[in-house]
Design goal:
five-stranded mixed beta sheet; single chain; Glutaredoxin; 4 helices; alpha/beta; 5 strands; 39% helix
């Protein structure tokens, strides 16, 4: 998973499907979710998986009302279509992705 910044964000999410993991280095649940997302990245070749550090990109965290982390958004052509807060195991994350993408 690529770690991106605010300057890259709009370019990356503007086309197709993108899963964005809003995280912080100090966040325990974020550290638990990271490997789950890394594992699922290869299972969804049509979805870009990226991470963005909320401490370093506060304007994006504010724009998307990130109040708790981890907070995962799925973007379709630049618009957030779904979000998930907190840690979930691989099955929970897959369920979230599948519901969002097939809605």
């Amino acid at each position: 998973m690529k770690i991106i910044n605010a300057e890259e964000f709009n370019e990356i999410v503007k086309n197709g499907l993108t899963l964005v993991d809003f995280y912080a280095d100090w966040c325990g649940p974020c550290k638990m979710l990271g490997p789950v997302l890394e594992e699922l990245d290869s299972e969804y070749p049509d979805i870009k998986f990226v991470k963005i550090n909320v401490d370093e990109n506060m304007e994006l965290a504010e724009k998307y009302s990130i109040m708790s982390i981890p907070n995962v958004h799925i973007f379709k052509d630049g618009e957030s279509i779904a979000n998930m807060q907190g840690y979930k195991d691989a099955a929970g994350v897959k369920d979230f992705i599948d519901k969002a993408v097939n809605a």
